[in-house]
Amino acid sequence: MSELRKDPIVGRWVIIDPELTQSTKDFSEPKEAIVTDPSTCPFCQGHEHMTLPEILGYRPPETQKDRPGWWIRVFANQPAILHIEGNLKRQGVGMFDMMSGIGAHEIIVDSPDHEKTYIELSDNQVEKVIWAYRDRIIDLQKDERFRYILIFKNHGINPGIKTSHSHSQLLATPVIPKAVKEELNGAKTHYNYKERCIYCDIIRQETIMKDRLVEENDHFAAFVPFAARFPYEISIMPKKHECDFSKITKEQAMDLSKILKSVLWKLYKGLDKPAYSFVLHTCPNHVPKETLWDTMQLDFHWHLEIIPRLLKPTGLEMGSGFYINPTPPEEAATFLKTIN
Amino acid sequence: MSELRKDPIVGRWVIIDPELTQSTKDFSEPKEAIVTDPSTCPFCQGHEHMTLPEILGYRPPETQKDRPGWWIRVFANQPAILHIEGNLKRQGVGMFDMMSGIGAHEIIVDSPDHEKTYIELSDNQVEKVIWAYRDRIIDLQKDERFRYILIFKNHGINPGIKTSHSHSQLLATPVIPKAVKEELNGAKTHYNYKERCIYCDIIRQETIMKDRLVEENDHFAAFVPFAARFPYEISIMPKKHECDFSKITKEQAMDLSKILKSVLWKLYKGLDKPAYSFVLHTCPNHVPKETLWDTMQLDFHWHLEIIPRLLKPTGLEMGSGFYINPTPPEEAATFLKTIN
User: Which chain B residues touch A229 with a CB distance below 8 Å?
Assistant: First the structure.
C-alpha cells in the first residue's frame, strides 16, 4: 500500500509506492518488454477482460460495458499509484506528517487503434479524449477525499505501463501538487496587486508580441513561456478566463484538440519524435476556506504544460531548482512556427 | 551571452544559455566523445594550458601557477553558463523580468589522477576538495553581485564537460536558487513557531530513531530523508548548528570527507555504479534586509543533498512537482547500511 509523505521543510508531498518495482534495488530497464503487438495489448478492443472494469466508456448505445465497440475507455490502473478504497488517514511519525495513499489512478485509452499515436488521431477523436478528461474530473470532484485531479500524458517514457497503445492518465490526490500550489500563490499575489489575472496578462502580451507565440485559434493560444525551463516547452492557455478546466465547452474542446495536436505534431516533426509529457493544471477541488483561495476563480487560469524530453536532466535541477535551458524561447517558437 | 529570466507566476529563475549547444535543435547524444584518454584530457597535469588560468591551486610552494605539481586546481569553465565580466543589468521585457547572465562558473578538479573517481580518492584528498569549496565560497562572497554560490557535482551525467576526469563545479549566481529559498522560508516558519532550527530537530530525530540513518560520525549524520523524492536520496548534515558552510573547521572537513566517501561508496557498490549528483545548500550571500532572513543564522542549517540517478524522470514530476518514489526510505537506509 502506498503512502504520502510530506517534506517537513518545504511542504512537498511525495508518494512512496513500493509496489511499483518488483525489487527496490533493481533500476535497470524493465525486463518485461513493452507490448507493441496488438494481439496481447490490454488496451486494445476485445481485451477488455485484461484490465479492471470500465469506469467510463464512450461507445454506441448498442454495445456493452467491458466489451468491444468503444471509442474511449477509462479504467483504474493496475498496479495503481494511489488506491480508491479506504479512509484518508493522516498521522504523525515523530515530527513528520504522513497520509495513507488514498486516491485514484486511472488510464484513459485515447483510441481503440493500437498503432496510432496521439497526433495521428483525428481531431474528433482527440476532442473525445479531452471530453473524457472533463467527465472524469467532474465525477471525481464529488469525492470529498480528493483535493486535486491531475490529468497527464507521458509519451515515450512511461514507467509502469507495459504497452505502447496511446493513453492518458489521471491521478486524484488528497493533496494539491506543489507546482499548482505555487501557481495559485503567485497568481493571487499578482491579483492582489493589480486586480487582474496574471495568465490573462501573459496571454495578452504573448498574442500581441507574437515572438514566443507558436499558434493560436479562436479559443486558445500556444506559446513558449518567457522563462521556459526546458527547450521547446509549450504552454496552451484558453483565451477566455476560467480557473476550472471542467467548465470547457464543446466548441473549446474542438479548438483545444486542434491546437494540441498541431503543437505536438510540430515537436514530433521538428525535433525527431521526442518523448514528451503534458500536464493539465486546473483549479483544486473542495477549496478549503483559506485566504489563499478566496479569489481563485478570479486569479487562477487553467492551462496545459507540454514538456518535450530532449535533455537528460542532471541532479542540478532537482538539487537547486535552477534550470539551464540552451534554447532561447523566441528561437524555439520561431522554429516551431516553420513546421507544418 | 546567457541571460537569467524569471517566471512571472512562481518566481523561478532560469538560465537561458544558447552557447551550450551548437545547434539548438540537436539534442542527440554529444558527437564529441568523452575523453577517457589522459593524454588529451584538459584536466590532467601538464595540460594546464588547455584550460583558462588557474583561480586557485593547492600545490607545493616550489611549483608554479598553471604548471604541473598541484593537488587541486580551480579555473573558470569554458563555455561558462554564467560570465564574470560585466555589470548586473536588470531589465523588464513587457511584463517580464530579466537579468544579464552575470556570475561565475568554475571547475574544481578533484585530483590530478585521471582515472580515480571521487570515491577512490584518499580521505585526505577529498578533504582538500572540500577545503577548495570553502576557499572559493569565501572568495566569491566578496563579490557583491552574487547572491548565492552553488557547489555541485555530476557523476555519470555531465552535459558540457568533455572529460571523465573527476571534478566538482561551482556556480555563483545573482539570484538565490528556488530550492534554497523554499528551505529558508520553511526553516523560518518552523523557527517562528518553535524557536528551534528544523534541521537540528530532524538530525535529532534521525540519529535517535536510526531507521533512516545510513551512517554518522562525530560531526555529521547521513540519512535518507523522510519524504525522499528519489530512491536512495541521501542528506548529509553537520550535527552542530551552522547556516554557513564556509565556517567549516579542518576537523569537520575531515569527518565530512569520510562520511561523503563512505555513502557514495555504498551507492556505487549497492546500486551498480549509478550516475549521481550532489548539491551543497549553504546560506545565501549579502543577505538583503528582508524579514525572511533576519533569523537565518538561527534557523537555517547547511547540508549536502545526494541524488542517485536511478529512474528516468517523466514529465509528471516537472509538470506537477509531485514525486513518486518506489523505494521506502527506511528500506533504502537498511539496505545501504549493509554495504561496506
Answer: 12, 14, 318
